[in-house]
Each structure stands twice: as structure tokens, then as C-alpha cells.
């Protein structure tokens, strides 16, 4: 019995040793888990920052006007617009990464030097969907378990590539479907040159268009006591001197999903002052839209039939009436492509990167046989334009004509590559901006 008693006394304290060893192991596992989770969160944060920066850079490149230019344009061939696009994109990327919302582990990420691609991957041919790649690295991330091996910090890296896509000037295009397009189906004729904005077959954009961008658009409708668009010119084109560009009212449908401050209950008016018009797919050579010649509750155009157009446009641009300097934002063309186009807020007098006056307007084919048939039309591109005022233009008697300044042009050819449609635009720009994976 004595020997048994001694054996039990020799086993005392083993539980404490096992618990101590287990605690060390548990603490090590907990520390390892903290390290892994911390680095995983940091990796997610830095990827999110890279994605946001790349998208901001691509949006800035689209705003530079580079996507509109054909390769033969002197601003493109000289490299000046590429310089502008890089400068604007770099500034946008720096601003995005300076935001606390894009910090990594509480630290601001250094932007580094973004890389740009204005050429096709396999050739030196310039393209109209420039890419920007942002690569980020955050060092000095704290660790816990790694201290055992003498490592007191870690590094997280991420890369993102984004593009600003314009199907113009490409032989085989991916269709785009901008949202928030305004219901003015403008003829495919530049009033400054009488040349088409875009080639209806190839989708190529007119050379030098941005430098000749300020003109008036007017409804191709006769005044009607029935508030009904009786077409003046079929198909629409240019009228007056200096020439104005004619448009037809698009056939719109009710959409109550969007919220805007001046919703009137009139579908045509709401589609101007709100961002609620159904998106149009451009190109492909087939009719894909209709103009409204029968809806008596949607009066448009000159004369007494233009009340809805006037009310909607003044609401859209925050103007108190006809003419310039009526409370709407302003735009300065400047010395493009040396400097970017600038928009000034009427409320704050600050420079802004967007405005309610910035809109997307569909361009319809008026030259190809069969493109304009009855109320059916073919959308072959879009104008991104700044609405400057609604007024009676000089040397005309038309009321409620709209003065615009073109910022960008999207053109689509008749040849689609079969890829899914890209949903683009944000009520102003018809040029989609998207992340590209892999770069």
C-alpha cells in the first residue's frame, strides 16, 4: 500500500504543466490568427484602395477627351492629349488615396506612379479605351506572432487596372448602353462643319470635333395646338443661320424609380430633369429607338408646345429662366488639350468634376438608307454635352432652343463582336469605366 501511495504523490502537478503548455500553444495560435486576420484585412483594404484609384483614374482619362479622338487627330498624334489624360488621372488617383476611406491599417497609402496604356496589347496602334494600372504597397504593418522569428512588420500589395471604354474608331465593338440619356434624338450632323459626328458604318468620330463643340439644338416639330410633334424636316438635320441642330423627342416610358427635385408626372419632362430614361444600346445597324409623334401629353419643341422642354431644362440646370448666368453651373473650355475643361458650381463658385448640366444625348442615323423610317430610328452614338442655357438663339425666332457644349462623343459601328453589353454612364457620361481583370 505504501508504494501505491508514493506513486500517486509523484503524479501531482502534471495538470498544471499541461495547462501551461496548452496556454502557450493557444496564445501562439491566437497570435497567429491575429496576424493572419490583420494581414487579410490589410490586403482587402489595399485592393479596395487600388480599385478605387484605378477607376478614378479611368474616369479622369475619359473626362480628358482622349477617348473621342481618332488616331489621325493632331492632339492625339502629337501626344498632347495623352499628357493631359495622364495628368488628370494622376491627380484623381492621388486625391482618392488621400481619403481616410482608402487607408490601410489606419495609414494613408502612397500612390506611387500609375502606368498608362494608350496602345493595343500586340501592336503600336493607338486605341480609344485607354488603361491605367495602379500598384500599391503598404509597409510597416504590425505583427504579433511573427515577432518570434524577428519579424516586427509585414507588407501588403495590390494592383488594379481600369479602362475608359469608347467603342468609337474600333472595327468590332462591344455595345454600350448608357443610363440617364436625355430624350433628344439629335441628327448625326455637326453644325460647325456639316460633317457627321460619327461614321454610321465604322463608328469613327469626326476629327477635330471637340474644338468645334458649341452650338444650339432645336426641336424638329411644328407648333401644335394639340401639343403634338408634327415633324418639320424628315429626316431632321440643320436649320437656320447660323445652323442649329434638329432633334426629335424620344418615345419615353414612365419610370418612377428615380427621385429628382422637380418630378412633374409628365414622362417626357421627367426624362429630361431626372435620370430615369431607359438605356439605349448603340450600333449594330438596326433600328433601336423611336421618336414620339403621337403622345399628346408630351408637348415639345418651339412655340407654345415647348413648355415642358423649358420647365424641364431650367430645372435640370438649376436656372431661374432663359439665358446665361441664371443660377446654372458654368463651363470653361480653356486651352484644351493643354488644360482640362473646367466646370464651375454656381452655388459655391468652386471647380467641380461633374454637374447636373452635363448630359448624354443620343445621335441618330439620318443618312443611311432605311435608317429613318416612320418613327423608327437607329442610335449610332451619343454626345456627352454641357447644357449652357435655354433661350431664343441669335438670328432665329424659335423658342426654347438649347445651347450645348460637346465634351465627349461615343460612336458605334455596325459590327458588334458579340460581347455582352456594357452598362455605362451615370446620367452624364456615356463612356463606361470598368475594372479589367486580369490587367
Task: Describe, in plain words, how this protein is organized in 3D.
With 439 residues, this protein is an alpha+beta fold. The chain folds into 2 domains: 15-164; 176-431, no CATH class. The protein has helices spanning 2-10, 14-63, 74-77, 80-98, 267-273, 307-316; strands at residues 115-119, 126-142, 153-164, 176-178, 184-187, 214-219, 221-222, 230-231, 238-239, 244-249, 289-290, 330-332, 342-344, 351-352, 358-364, 376-377, 379-391, 401-411, 422-424, 433-436. A 6-stranded mixed beta barrel has the order 5-10-6-18-17-15. A hairpin with a 7-residue loop joins strand 7 and strand 8. Helix 5 runs parallel beside helix 6. The protein is elongated, with a radius of gyration of 29 Å. 45% of the residues are buried. Mean pLDDT is 82; it is low at 295-305.
What are the main properties of this structure?
6-stranded mixed β-barrel, 4-stranded antiparallel beta sheet, 439 residues, single chain, 2 domains, alpha+beta
Q: SSE layout and pairings?
A:
Blueprint: H1 2-10, H2 14-63, H3 74-77, H4 80-98, E1 115-119, E2 126-142, E3 153-164, E4 176-178, E5 184-187, E6 214-219, E7 221-222, E8 230-231, E9 238-239, E10 244-249, H5 267-273, E11 289-290, H6 307-316, E12 330-332, E13 342-344, E14 351-352, E15 358-364, E16 376-377, E17 379-391, E18 401-411, E19 422-424, E20 433-436
Parallel strand pairs: 4-19, 5-15, 6-10
Antiparallel strand pairs: 1-2, 2-3, 3-20, 5-10, 6-18, 7-8, 9-10, 11-16, 12-13, 13-14, 15-17, 17-18
Amino acid at each position: 500500500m505504501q508504494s501505491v501511495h508514493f506513486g500517486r504523490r509523484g503524479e501531482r502537478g502534471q495538470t498544471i504543466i499541461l495547462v501551461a503548455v496548452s496556454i502557450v500553444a493557444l496564445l501562439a495560435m491566437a497570435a497567429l490568427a491575429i496576424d493572419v486576420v490583420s494581414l487579410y484585412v490589410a490586403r482587402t483594404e489595399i485592393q479596395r484602395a487600388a480599385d478605387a484609384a484605378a477607376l478614378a483614374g479611368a474616369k479622369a482619362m475619359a473626362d480628358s477627351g482622349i477617348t473621342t479622338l481618332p488616331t489621325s487627330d493632331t492632339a492625339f498624334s502629337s501626344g498632347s492629349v495623352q499628357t493631359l489624360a495622364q495628368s488628370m488621372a494622376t491627380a484623381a488617383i492621388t486625391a482618392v488615396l488621400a481619403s481616410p476611406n482608402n487607408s490601410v491599417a489606419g495609414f494613408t497609402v502612397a500612390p506611387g506612379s500609375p502606368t498608362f496604356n494608350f496602345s493595343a496589347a500586340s501592336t503600336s496602334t493607338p486605341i480609344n479605351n485607354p488603361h491605367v494600372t495602379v500598384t500599391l504597397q503598404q509597409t510597416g504593418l504590425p505583427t504579433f506572432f511573427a515577432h518570434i522569428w524577428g519579424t516586427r512588420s509585414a507588407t501588403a500589395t495590390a494592383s488594379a487596372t481600369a479602362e475608359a471604354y469608347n467603342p468609337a474608331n474600333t472595327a468590332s465593338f462591344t455595345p454600350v448602353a448608357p443610363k440617364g440619356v436625355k430624350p433628344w434624338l439629335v441628327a448625326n450632323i455637326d453644325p460647325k462643319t456639316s460633317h457627321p459626328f460619327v461614321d454610321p458604318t465604322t463608328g469613327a468620330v469626326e476629327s477635330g470635333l471637340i474644338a468645334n463643340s458649341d452650338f444650339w439644338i432645336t426641336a424638329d416639330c411644328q407648333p401644335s395646338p394639340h401639343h403634338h410633334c408634327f415633324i418639320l424636316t424628315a429626316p431632321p438635320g440643320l436649320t437656320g443661320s447660323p445652323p442649329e441642330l434638329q432633334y426629335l423627342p424620344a418615345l419615353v416610358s414612365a419610370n418612377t424609380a428615380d427621385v429628382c427635385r422637380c418630378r412633374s408626372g409628365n414622362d417626357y419632362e421627367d426624362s429630361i430633369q431626372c435620370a430615369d430614361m431607359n438605356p439605349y444600346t448603340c450600333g449594330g445597324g438596326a433600328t433601336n429607338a423611336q421618336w414620339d409623334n403621337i403622345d399628346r401629353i408630351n408637348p415639345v419643341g418651339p412655340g407654345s408646345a415647348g413648355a415642358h422642354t423649358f420647365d424641364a431644362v431650367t430645372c435640370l440646370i438649376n436656372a431661374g429662366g432663359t439665358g446665361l448666368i441664371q443660377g446654372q453651373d458654368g463651363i470653361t473650355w480653356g486651352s484644351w488639350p493643354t488644360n482640362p475643361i473646367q466646370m464651375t458650381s454656381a452655388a459655391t463658385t468652386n471647380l467641380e468634376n461633374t454637374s447636373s448640366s452635363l448630359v448624354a444625348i443620343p445621335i441618330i442615323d439620318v443618312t443611311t438608307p432605311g435608317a429613318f423610317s416612320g418613327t423608327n430610328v437607329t442610335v449610332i452614338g451619343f454626345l456627352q454635352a454641357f447644357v449652357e442655357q435655354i433661350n431664343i438663339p441669335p438670328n432665329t425666332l424659335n423658342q426654347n432652343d438649347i445651347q450645348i457644349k460637346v465634351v465627349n462623343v461615343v460612336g458605334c459601328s455596325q459590327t458588334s463582336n458579340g460581347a455582352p453589353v456594357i452598362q455605362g454612364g451615370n446620367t452624364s457620361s456615356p463612356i463606361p469605366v470598368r475594372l479589367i481583370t486580369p490587367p
